Amino acid sequence: MSMNGTNCESCTNYVYDEDYDCYVCMINLDEDEMARFLQGTNYACPYYRLDDEYGVVRHQN
Hints:
This protein is α+β, with helices and mostly antiparallel strands. The protein has two helices and four strands. The radius of gyration is 13 Å and the shape is globular.
């Protein structure tokens, strides 16, 4: 779901939950944040963090 530059699928907080057999966001949004998220394209998630596996490797060098 792409939202104002935020793409949940590329976020470190978006993980697979074996109990639900699907991907879920690990951040518990409050009511206001959830309402903004559900309204659509004007939401920029403040918890978004790029899941950059290679970023860790770059910092180790």
